[in-house]
Amino acid sequence: MSDEHSGMPDKPTLRAMARQRRRAFVAGLDPLAHRLAFKVLPSPLARRLADVRTVALYMGIEDEAPAQRLAAKLIETGRTVALPRVIDRMGSMEFLAWHPDAPLLPGRFGTSHPEQGDGPVAPDAIIAPLLGFDRAMNRLGQGGGYYDRAFARYPDALRVGLAWSVQEQEAIPADPWDLPLHMVLTEVELIEGEES
C-alpha cells in the first residue's frame, strides 16, 4: 500500500518494514555494543535538559532502544525519572515517578510501570520510543496514539525520540495532529531538529 498522493508507503506498511529492519539490526548487533548503547547523555542533550526537573523514559521491550539505561545518569544529575502507565485502549497514559531500584508492575501491551506512589507527574521532557524517524523530526510510532496524546497534553515538554540508527527513514508521512520531535538520539549520534 502507498499514499495515493505521494507514492510513499502508508504508515502500516512503513511500520511492518521498520519492525523487520530493527529486529534484524538488533539481532546482528555485537552484544558489547548493545550493552554500552544509550548509557551516556550527549552534551547537547544534557544542555537541553539543564532546566528540566522530570524526564519521562520508557522500559524498552523486545528490540526497542533501551531508554531505561539513561535513568542512572538522569538521577545522578538531580532529575526525577518517570515511566508511562497505559490506562486504556483509547490512547490514554500517565507518567509515574520511578527509581531503578523500585519494582515494576506488568501493564498493557507487554509494558511495565511503577506503582502509583504519589500519583502522576508532569514531565518536562519525554523520551519516546519509535519505529521510524526522519531528519524532519517526524516520528513513526506503534499506531496507538499514546505518545501523540502525551505530546499534545504536555506541549512545552522537550520531545526526544530514542532509536537505533537503522530506524532512520528518508521520509515519514505526518498527519495534522503529529507533533515533530525536537531531537532523536541513536547509538551513534544526536540529531537535532531545526527548531531545537
From TrEMBL:
Q: Which InterPro entries match?
A: FTHF_cligase, FTHF_cligase-like_sf, NagB/RpiA_transferase-like
User: What would be one Pfam family of this protein?
Assistant: 5-FTHF_cyc-lig
Q: Which reaction does it catalyse?
A: (6S)-5-formyl-5,6,7,8-tetrahydrofolate + ATP = (6R)-5,10-methenyltetrahydrofolate + ADP + phosphate
Q: Name one GO molecular function term.
A: 5-formyltetrahydrofolate cyclo-ligase activity
- Does Metal-binding appear among the keywords? yes
Gene3D superfamilies in the record: NagB/RpiA/CoA transferase-like
Binding, ATP? 11-15, 139-147
Keywords of the record = ATP-binding, Ligase, Magnesium, Metal-binding, Nucleotide-binding
State the top-level EC class.
ligase
Q: What is this protein called?
A: 5-formyltetrahydrofolate cyclo-ligase
Taxonomic source organism: Sphingobium baderi
List the taxonomic lineage.
Answer: Bacteria, Pseudomonadati, Pseudomonadota, Alphaproteobacteria, Sphingomonadales
